[in-house]
Design brief:
Helix content: 25-40%
Number of helices: 10
Distance between the termini: 115 Å
CATH architecture of one domain: Beta Barrel
Largest sheet: 6 strands, antiparallel, barrel
Number of strands: 21
Structural class: alpha+beta
CATH superfamily of one domain: Trypsin-like serine proteases
């Protein structure tokens, strides 16, 4: 009997755990929800990484800015009188004994006989132009056709793409980009730019910097975007010459679009180099030629040594010879090319002026410096108190002896810099020194 009670008690204490039935629908919903949340989280993480990775990468490993291109400074050509004075010996050494052999003199009959033996005909004329054409074809390796792509909407809301072409000049390779100088007139509404090199290779390009005063632009293409064969070869870079030397009478070739159409060519010579174009904070010497071209001409002037001596522009002389090609002298443009190559903003003060001639300094007592002829209305110089007739003789700690020096110093400064100008102003028949503090603006 006790055993039976013990067994009944054991049966009473035994627990049976009943397994809960699996709710498959609920499990599937949770699985799907978990997978969806994982996908959403992954997408958010991916987008966040893509957005922040370049920022973090630039912060940790800042990209080095390409170096600014620099050109050797051109020296003004000395006049024969200055060269004679500079080379004049302090002591007169005894001259070496001269040989008793004078110059050979030809009789008139001999001269006429030599000239009569030289016969020029159509073949000589043809050979001359064939030689010039061959030389012009050699210069084309420095030129780039810049295709400017823009789009317009017509009356029926249809988008129409238009393409204009201008001529560009390969001026530098900074190790990262190929730099091309071009006219900025047609770039205002550019949506896309394309370079076409003389070998037919076409690549996309971008605008680095523009200068509204000269209406020039610096364009570029990454070297890595060029075909491998071009990267391995030495890309031809145009050699910028000097316009400070006497170029009057020098033969030149106008390349680019001097006739208003692409790949047009003009032959001639420089007829004048003493016309000056006055603009804000700078003066440019213009090279006038006897090459008849378009009033909308563009391109570049080469001499017969293969150097660029001028940048072809539209007629800015105001003369009656409106169809003659003229150009900025290359020496005055080099500093602007340097600034644009580094995407550096150009400082602006808003002064138009000129050099004080030595005779004016001696006879009228006008101090040597940058003579202020007029001021731009909305310029930083106007509210600062400068006036026409003032002569700038110093900027900060540097003395200024001419308007050219003023321009060179200003190009070394940056927009936003505050400079102290030392100015001589005429008051009661004498010049008195004054100081002005001016915050420089930026050329737009």
């Amino acid at each position: 009997m006790p055993d039976r009670q013990q067994n009944d008690q054991n049966d009473f204490l035994v627990e049976r755990i009943k397994v809960r039935p699996i709710n498959r629908k609920k499990l599937i919903r949770r699985t799907i929800l978990t997978a969806a949340m994982a996908v959403i989280f992954g997408l958010i993480a991916c987008v966040t990484f893509l957005v922040l990775e370049p920022v973090i990468n630039r912060w940790l490993y800042p990209e080095e800015k390409p170096p600014m291109v620099s050109f050797p400074e051109d020296r003004m050509e000395m006049s024969p009188e200055e060269m004679l004075a500079e080379n004049l010996p302090t002591e007169s050494p005894s001259p070496p004994p001269a040989e008793e052999s004078g110059p050979v003199e030809l009789e008139d009959e001999q001269i006429e006989e030599i000239l009569a033996s030289v016969v020029l005909d159509r073949e000589n004329y043809t050979e001359l132009y064939n030689a010039m054409n061959g030389y012009a074809n050699e210069l084309k390796k420095y030129l780039v056709t810049v295709t400017v792509v823009t789009s317009n909407v017509d009356w029926f809301n249809n988008v129409q793409e238009s393409r204009n072409q201008i001529s560009g000049l390969v001026v530098a390779n900074n190790g990262k980009e190929l730099l091309v100088l071009a006219d900025a007139s047609t770039l205002r509404r550019a949506e896309k730019l394309l370079f076409t090199f003389s070998n037919g290779v076409q690549v996309p390009a971008r605008i680095k910097q523009q200068d509204s005063i000269t209406n020039l632009a610096m364009l570029s293409v990454e070297l890595t975007e060029l075909p491998e064969e071009m990267q391995q070869e030495e890309i031809p870079i145009a050699q910028l010459g000097s316009s400070y030397r006497n170029l009057v009478g020098v033969p030149v070739v106008a390349m680019g679009r001097p006739m208003g159409t692409m790949d047009s060519i003009g032959y001639g010579m420089v007829t004048s180099a003493n016309v000056q174009l006055s603009v804000s904070d700078r003066n440019y010497n213009l090279l006038l030629t006897d090459i008849s071209g378009s009033q909308n001409a563009g391109g570049f002037l080469f001499d017969l040594q293969g150097e660029v001596v001028g940048i072809v522009i539209g007629n800015k002389t105001g003369s009656d010879m409106k169809n003659m090609i003229n150009a900025y002298g290359i020496s005055e443009v080099k500093r602007i090319i340097e600034k644009m190559s580094g995407e550096s903003a150009v400082a602006y003060m808003g002064i138009r002026g000129l050099d004080v001639p030595a005779e004016v300094n001696q006879e009228l007592g006008v101090p040597m410096g940058a003579f202020v002829k007029e001021l731009d209305t909305d310029s930083p110089a106007m509210p600062a108190g400068l006036q026409p007739g003032d002569v700038i003789i110093g900027i900060n700690e540097r003395s200024i002896g001419s308007f050219t020096e003023y321009t060179n110093v200003l190009l070394q400064l940056s927009p936003g810099d505050t400079v102290e100008l030392t100015v001589m102003r005429k008051a009661q028949e004498e010049y008195k020194e004054m100081k002005f503090s001016i915050e420089l603006g930026e050329v737009k």
